[in-house]
């Protein structure tokens, strides 16, 4: 049995046929057009191409799911707001479902990525997983007791907007001191430029220079890890997930990032003395987590 996942992004629409274990069987991708109807048409085309590439007629696909950015009502299949394409109250599930002649599941893309990691990646076989993505912002998702947990109005798990420093750095959401204002790749890069006195930097600059012995870079990395450890420890204390997985570009630092974070958890996790502890691991599926999670949405609701 094959499932079809679609990842709606601001630049590309990607579709993939996925087997019951979450392995990708075929792919298709198209550039994202502007406007609601063209987007729905391109999503339908990508879905047909991915099904054809897998050699399975669309009616034989078990379920179709879409990971969409922005605020989403999965119950009604609506994107409430997506700033990138200025979508407001777009009934995307119906627009795509009409074109494909079948019903379509939708979910916020960060939640779909968490589901992908739970079903087929870092959390495979676990009872619960919290996924944290370090990108432009800090995204998150949680699968608890085998179900995606998103809050009663589907807007929960905005972990990037948990305050880790009261009265601290301003955040795009209007609060001060949010997790994301310290731990997104954006925050890391701006701090790297500021402390190292650079005009240009990326998410690797400070880590690379710290390894080469640069003291300013070391300050940036130590501060970044301390802030990340603070937020992650709070997440472990609240959720006690069996697996906590870190994804996004910054997480590609791997053990250079994970080892000091585990040391913070060993010191500060409230349940640190218990035999069974949350496992902090690197996300396993990279950019495919969202599309795999989208494909399998129907199985986890
Ligand atoms: Zn915020």
Your description of this structure?
- This protein has 301 residues and is an alpha/beta fold.
- The protein has two domains: 2-112 and 289-299, ATPase, nucleotide binding domain (Nucleotidyltransferase, domain 5); 125-283, ATPase, nucleotide binding domain (Nucleotidyltransferase, domain 5, 2-Layer Sandwich).
- 37% of the residues lie in helices and 23% in strands.
- The chain is built from nine helices and 13 strands.
- It has helices at residues 36-54, 92-100, 109-120, 179-183, 185-196, 205-211, 215-239, 255-268, 289-295, and strands spanning 2-8, 12-19, 24-31, 64-68, 71-73, 78-82, 87-90, 105-108, 128-134, 138-144, 147-149, 243-247, 279-282.
- The strands form three sheets. The protein has a five-stranded mixed sheet.
- It starts with a strand and ends in a 6-residue tail after the last helix.
- Bound molecules: zinc ion (ZN).
